[in-house]
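Weekly modeling sync, notes
Attendees: S.R. (lead), two postdocs, one rotation student

Agenda item 3: backlog of single-chain predictions. S.R. asked that every request posted to the team notebook include the full sequence so nobody has to chase files. The rotation student volunteered to paste the first one in as an example of the format we agreed on. Action items at the bottom.

Example entry:
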Amino acid sequence: MFPHGRPISLDDLKSLKGTLVHANAEAITSDTSLAPFDLEELGRMVDLVDKMQEGAMEGQPDMVWAIGPIDPTHSIGKVADCPS
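Predicted structure, as returned to the notebook:
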């Protein structure tokens, strides 16, 4: 089953978490947030990335599929080797 066995880069997860934290802070401090998700969704995404980081450090690569729905632009750029 794709992408079974594909490892998650901790650097990519740190970058994704940084983007989510930035979007979360922007949504909290702005009257007209540009974040495409509400605060509850952003919080759940940060929690999911935390769990993915734990899994990556434990050598559990089976959670890599979750990156695409959270950050499709970043994931597509990495897959296509395009600048993101």
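Discussion: group reviewed the output briefly. Residues 75-84 have pLDDT under 50 and may be disordered.
Action items: rotation student to repeat for the remaining queue; S.R. to check formatting next week.
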